[in-house]
C-alpha cells in the first residue's frame, strides 16, 4: 500500500521522491509536517494529492492577518428558532488539514492550532471535542517573504514532527510536468489507494518497530548535545526526541525492516530536530543554521555498533 501511495504522489509531484518520503514518514509517525519552501513548488498540490490518495476528509485554511481562532476550530452558533446555541465545527475537523501560509496569521490565531496538534482535540466554551483520527496538519510557509508575516513561535514549531522542503524540479522533471498538464491536471486523475482505517493500522504497526536501548541512548545523546551548545538559546525538547524515535521507526518500516538502525536516526535527525533549536543572535548573524548544529552533533556523538 505504501508503494502504491508513493507512486500516486509521484505522478503529481515529479522527481521529488525524498520530499514525498519525508511527508509519508511524518504521516506514519502520527505527526505533523511543516513545508518550508518558495511559492509554486507544489506544497498545496502535494497535500491535496495525499488526501485524495487516502480517501481522507481534507480541509484547507488560508491563513491571513484577519483570520480568527473561531475560523479554524469553529464556535457556538445561536439558533433563533429555539433560542439555543449549537457548536459548528471549523475546518480543523478533518483528517488532513492544510494550513496554507501559516505565518501570515497573527500569533493568537496560530495558537488555535496548538491544542489540536498536540492533543488531537479542541476546547471551546469549556467543552473538549475530539478531532477525527488519523489527524495530520500540513502547514506551509514562504521562507523568503517576510512582509505581513509573523514568525512561528517556538511552541508551535515544536509541535511539527518534521520540516521539509520540496525545491525546484530538475529540467527533465519540469518538462515532464508541462507535458502532464497540457489537457488536464494529474491531481484530477488520482484515485484512492487506501483509506484512513488502513492508515491507522499502518501507524499502529510502526509503533511496534523495535528500537534497541543503544539506539535510544544515541537519540538522547544527540538531543542533549543541543541543550549544552553555547551558541543556542534553546535546545531540542523531549518532544523532539520522541518525534525522532517515531520518525526513525517509520523510516525503518518503510524500508521493510522490523527494527531501527542508527542510520535511520541519522537520516531523520536534521528534518526532525533542526527547526526546534533557537540559535543565539550573534551565531545566527554569523550564518549558523539549525541543520549545521545537528550535523555537528551527528559528527561528535559516537554511533552505536
Written overview of the protein:
Helix content is 45%, strand content 16%. By secondary structure, it is of the alpha/beta class. It folds into two domains: 2-199, P-loop containing nucleotide triphosphate hydrolases (Rossmann fold), CATH 3.40.50.300; 207-300, Orthogonal Bundle (Helicase, Ruva Protein, domain 3), CATH 1.10.8.80. A five-stranded parallel β-sheet has the order 2-5-8-1-9. A two-stranded antiparallel sheet has the order 3-4. It has a two-stranded antiparallel sheet with strand order 6-7. β6 (121-124) and β7 (127-130) form a beta hairpin.
Which structural traits does this protein have?
2 domains, Helicase, Ruva Protein, domain 3, two-stranded antiparallel ribbon, Rossmann fold, 5-stranded parallel β-sheet, about 300 residues
Total DSSP helices: 15
Distance between the termini: 32 Å
Strand order of the largest sheet: 2-5-8-1-9
CATH A-level architecture of the largest domain:
3-Layer(aba) Sandwich
Number of strands: 11
Secondary-structure-based class equals alpha/beta
Mean pLDDT: 90
Amino acid at each position: 500500500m505504501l508503494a502504491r501511495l508513493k507512486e500516486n504522489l509521484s505522478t503529481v509531484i515529479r522527481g521529488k521522491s525524498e520530499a514525498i518520503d519525508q511527508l509519508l514518514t511524518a504521516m506514519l509517525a502520527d505527526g505533523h509536517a511543516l513545508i518550508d519552501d518558495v511559492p509554486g513548488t507544489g506544497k498545496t498540490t502535494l497535500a491535496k494529492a495525499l488526501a485524495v490518495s487516502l480517501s481522507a476528509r481534507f480541509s484547507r485554511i488560508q491563513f491571513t492577518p484577519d483570520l480568527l481562532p473561531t475560523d479554524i476550530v469553529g464556535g457556538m452558533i445561536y439558533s433563533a428558532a429555539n433560542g439555543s446555541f449549537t457548536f459548528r465545527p471549523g475546518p480543523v475537523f478533518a483528517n488532513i488539514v492544510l494550513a496554507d501560509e501559516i505565518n501570515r496569521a497573527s500569533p493568537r490565531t496560530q495558537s488555535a492550532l496548538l491544542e489540536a496538534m498536540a492533543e488531537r482535540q479542541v476546547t471551546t466554551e469549556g467543552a473538549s471535542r475530539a478531532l477525527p483520527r488519523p489527524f495530520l496538519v500540513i502547514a506551509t510557509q514562504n521562507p523568503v517573504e517576510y512582509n505581513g508575516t509573523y514568525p512561528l513561535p517556538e511552541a508551535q514549531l515544536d509541535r511539527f514532527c518534521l520540516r521539509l522542503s520540496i525545491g525546484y524540479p530538475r529540467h527533465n522533471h519540469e518538462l515532464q510536468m508541462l507535458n502532464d498538464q497540457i489537457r488536464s491536471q494529474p491531481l484530477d486523475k488520482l484515485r484512492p489507494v487506501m483509506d484512513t482505517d488502513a492508515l491507522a493500522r499502518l501507524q499502529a504497526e510502526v509503533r511496534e518497530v523495535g528500537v534497541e536501548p543503544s539506539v535510544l541512548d544515541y537519540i538522547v545523546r544527540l538531543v542533549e548535545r543541543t541543550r549544552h551548545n553555547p551558541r543556542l538559546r534553546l535546545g531540542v525538547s523531549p518532544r523532539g526526541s520522541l518525534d525522532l524515535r517515531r520518525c526513525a521507526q517509520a523510516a525503518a518500516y518503510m524500508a521493510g525492516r522490523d527494527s531501527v538502525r542508527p542510520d535511520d536516526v541519522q537520516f531523520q535527525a536534521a528534518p526532525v530536530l533542526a527547526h526546534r533549536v533557537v540559535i543565539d543572535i550573534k551565531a545566527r548573524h554569523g550564518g549558523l543554521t539549525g541543520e549545521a548544529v545537528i550535523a555537528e552533533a551527528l559528527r561528535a556523538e559516537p554511533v552505536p555498533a
